[in-house]
Amino acid sequence: MAILVCGGAGYIGSHTVWELLDHGEEIIVADNLEKGHKAALQGGKLIKGDLRDKEFVRKLFRKHDIEGVINFAAYIEVGESVQLPMKYYHNNVVLSLNILEAMAEAHTPYLVFSSTAATYGAVETSPITEDFPTIPTNPYGETKLTVEKAIKWTAQAHGLKYVILRYFNASGAHPSSKIGEDHHPETHLIPLVLQAALGKRPSIKIFGNDYPTPDGTCIRDYIHVCDLAQAHYLALQHLRSGKENTTCNLGNGLGFSVKEVIETAEKVTGLKIPQEMAPRRPGDPPALVASSDRAKSLLGWKPKYADLATIIETAWNWHKNHPNGYGDKK
Ligand code: UFG
């Protein structure tokens, strides 16, 4: 039986596909390649199609023997979601509901869902545990929270088993540097900083220096993409062994400010990275740092690349070797 990886040609999806293949899993990737890259897949069967199309999704389940689903497919840009909320609802929510309905119809038992720290919103204290209130500050986080709730109700009604994983800031690249992060447009801090180091951008803009943090810039918890991938495999094993439905944060429990990320990138690359101050980006909470104790105790998750310099180094190796990403400009 196969694991269906929705959005598996994207950044976190492709690293997870690699991890699952390493464990001998049979993989089917469903991706419309709007944001994903065919070249990011190191194996598995790619089925190109749009998960917003209910018939396409139902056919996947009718044609293939699917044991479980990992759902990564989503638009992910916080800033864009504030400008174009309906774009996020129509994609992130609709495609996920299609998957849930098709799973219920086919009696597919296991779902691992890619959620986000953006479900919490502006949290005053840290680290954040899973039972903190969820009050998103942007439509991106809101759409993920909406899907989380739909999953919980579907589980109650149809016996679906699920693990929801709330990622903090996914970053880094596979240590082989064969696959990595390639978004168009790129909006994430670490790849933008490294593109500025490579001279592909004139500078890195720091979005706001008047936040209530020690240096005034936003604090985030950066987590290596391969450690996220490991957690997805463990989540699947957790469900297969009949253990309970759960929601787990995935982060390193350490917060770094935008300025600290730039300083670390300068040390890793040995290059001076030009920077300029810019206004706050709408929707950005000041600080998001995870407690991942639950993922560690319940799933047996052990991050391997927790150090920020190591995370940036793997990203740097990918960017140096692939200055144009996968070269398909999407
Ligand atoms: N930032 C800059 N300049 C830039 C880009 C980003 O100063 O050019 C800042 C942002 O304002 C933010 C921090 O760097 O304070 C990190 O920004 P990212 O865009 O890299 O990441 P976000 O924290 O906005 O969002 C990411 C994921 C979300 C996830 C969230 C959870 O994109 O999916 O982490 O923390 F929900």
From TrEMBL:
NCBIfam families recorded for this chain?
Answer: galE
Residues of the NAD-dependent epimerase/dehydratase domain = 3-251
Q: What is this protein called?
A: UDP-glucose 4-epimerase
Q: Which GO BP terms, alphabetically? A: galactose catabolic process via UDP-galactose, Leloir pathway
* Required cofactor names: NAD(+)
Tell me which domain of life the UniProt entry assigns to the organism this sequence originates from: Bacteria
EC id: 5.1.3.2
Q: Which reaction does it catalyse?
A: UDP-alpha-D-glucose = UDP-alpha-D-galactose
Residue stretches in coiled coil: none
MF terms from GO for this chain are:
UDP-glucose 4-epimerase activity
Q: Which UniProt keywords apply?
A: Carbohydrate metabolism, Isomerase, NAD
Q: Which family does it belong to?
A: Belongs to the NAD(P)-dependent epimerase/dehydratase family.
**Quaternary state and interactors:** Homodimer.
Instruction: Tell me the pathway.
Output: Carbohydrate metabolism; galactose metabolism
List the InterPro entries hit by this protein, alphabetically: Epimerase_deHydtase, NAD(P)-bd_dom_sf, UDP_G4E
